[in-house]
């Protein structure tokens, strides 16, 4: 009779020990993991939608206009003469403006 009561109490003890860890994981998921995944998804979408003529800022703080763009390389026009080549991943954000198209 005492053996069955001890066995039933032992399984309740396991759930009592595991339950706080489950709650901590759920809290970490909603406070840390999920927002980070959303930010990564937004950044990836922003990098994929870049096009020629977009004004952007690099991670280093350089402002420029996209002159040429490929799958992994972006050429930025900083002023009328200077063009700099960057990795596409080095774009921090787009300013949301389109530069006027200059024809020569």
From TrEMBL:
<keyword id="KW-0653">Protein transport</keyword>
<keyword id="KW-0813">Transport</keyword>
<comment type="similarity">
    <text>Belongs to the YajC family.</text>
</comment>
<dbReference type="Pfam" id="PF02699">
    <property type="entry name" value="YajC"/>
</dbReference>
<keyword id="KW-0472">Membrane</keyword>
<dbReference type="GO" id="GO:0005886">
    <property type="term" value="C:plasma membrane"/>
</dbReference>
<keyword id="KW-0812">Transmembrane</keyword>
<dbReference type="InterPro" id="IPR003849">
    <property type="entry name" value="Preprotein_translocase_YajC"/>
</dbReference>
<protein>
    <submittedName>
        <fullName>Preprotein translocase subunit YajC</fullName>
    </submittedName>
</protein>
<dbReference type="GO" id="GO:0015031">
    <property type="term" value="P:protein transport"/>
</dbReference>
<feature type="transmembrane region" description="Helical">
    <location>
        <begin position="12"/>
        <end position="33"/>
    </location>
</feature>
<keyword id="KW-1003">Cell membrane</keyword>
<keyword id="KW-1133">Transmembrane helix</keyword>
<keyword id="KW-0811">Translocation</keyword>
